[in-house]
Amino acid sequence: MRNFYLKKSGVRAAAAAMLMVLASNAASAQDYTENNINYYIDGDEAYVGESHNATGDITILDKITVNDVDYPVTRIEGSSFYGENSENITSVHIGSAMKNIDAEAFYNCGNVTDVYISADPEQLTWYDGGHDDFKRDGTTICHVSDAAAWAKFLGEVNLTFRDATSTPFSYSYDEATHTLTISGTEAMPNYTNTTRPWSDYCSEITSLVISDGVPCINMDAFKYCTGLESVTMPASVKAICQYAFDGCTKLTTVTLGSGVSYVSNDAFSDCTALSAIKVDEANPYFMSLDGNVLTKDGSKFVLIPMSVTTLNLPATLSSFDCSLLSSLTSLTNITVDESNPNYKSAGNMLLSKDGTQLYYYYGNDATLNIPEGVTLIEVEAFYNFNGMTTINLPKSMEMIEGGYIFRSCSNLETITIPEDNEYMKTVDGILYSKDGTQLIRCPGKKDNMTMLSTVKKICSYAFAHCGLTEINIPDGVTVIEANAFYDCDKAKKVTIPQSVTTIESDAFYYCTEVTDVYCYADPEQLDWTDSGYDEFGHDDENNPTTQCHVNAADLNTYLAKWSTGDTSTDVRVIFVDDLETATSVSTVRQTAEKADGLYYNLSGQRTGKPARGLYIRNGKKVVIK
Question: What DSSP assignment string belongs to 397-434?
Answer without folding.
Answer: -----SSGGGTT-TT--EEE--TT-SSEEEETTEEEET
